Amino acid sequence: MKKILFLITKAEFGGAQKAVFDLACALKNRYIITVACGKEGQGDDDLISRLNEQNVKGVYLNHLKRNISPLSDLLAISEIKKITASVSPDIIHLNSSKAGVLGSYAASQLPASNRPKVIYCIGGWAFNENVSNIKKRIYLYAEKWSARFKDIIVTVSKSDRELAIKLGIASPEKLVAIHNGLNQNSLCFLKKDEALKKLLPESIYKQNNKIVGTIANLYKNKGLDYLIKSAQETQGVIFIVIGEGAERTSLERLIKDHNLTNKFLLVGSKNNASSYLKALDIFVLPSLKEGMPWVILEAMTAGLTIIATNVGGLPEMIENDKTGILVEPADNQALTTKINYLIQNPLTAQKMSELAKEKIKEFSLEKMVAETEKLF
């Protein structure tokens, strides 16, 4: 059997980690799989822990970190070379920007006889993030420079592939778009009342408000500050964010400054977070940057009406005003308007959620695995 080494920057379980997990588990009976990642976000429910439960080999790398650090990056390259030489994979499957740059360069330094095929999967270009122009230029240069070491570059949306061609990151022949795919049978949702009781204090639960919410790591790119601001101009609505992250303190301060303490709740991370989705009446993803977010597929499966920003692959998932609503990023007034519209027009909201349930059939795990396996 062929050997595959998956490499990803962080252990913390998010969208990119889910892609690696699903692929590794789907392929484990046909290939010898090893997954390596950095230690950021290491914990009982991280990527490696979940893989171990599925009898897939996973290892931590001490020096692979998200932030740029010359010393750590050099040490990470050395670590990646060592594990690649040890595993001797036929294919190295790189995921996320940092792993893509360092992993592809490390593979290129191996003897030609031991050099694996390099496949790089990017869930969303880092230079599209809400960072300084200097960082944007650095990220773009890194992608262009490292593309020479990659045999295939997989984007999760057609729009990201087109952008890569436009910016000259790689030739069209090297770039492939493969949508994320969801195993709907793996999802199990709590009933609405049960989910609400687990998420909300009893005093708020009994108020019988409409519930608007999202599942997101508390990062700047998720645009949660705009969702907080949008909450000011809604009536009879409670907002819930399931997730944790570095921006918690600043978001809590913003909630307090806008007098939304009892209206906008950061409930923290939850194991099997998608199981709580039916607690919501409306799902909102206010991201400033996205690839092809799994949580949208999960929200569609749960039968929720969705509002999301017009970024990344989201327009390929949501047909505006038909299977959901798209708004421009960083526009809290647009979020407010559309949230109020859906609350005031429940039949329209219901129709959108029904059509979204049909749309989800286009994004199956089987299709994602089959298209990925063709690249091997």
UniProtKB/TrEMBL annotation:
What CDD domains has UniProt attached to this entry?
GT4_CapM-like
> Pfam families, from UniProt?
Glyco_transf_4, Glycos_transf_1
Please state every residue range assigned to the domain named Glycosyltransferase subfamily 4-like N-terminal. Answer: 13-183
Source species, domain of life: Bacteria
* Single GO MF annotation: glycosyltransferase activity
The Glycosyl transferase family domain is annotated at 206-358
Question: What PANTHER family does the record tag this protein with?
Answer: GLYCOSYLTRANSFERASE
Question: What is this protein's name?
Answer: Glycosyltransferase family 1 protein
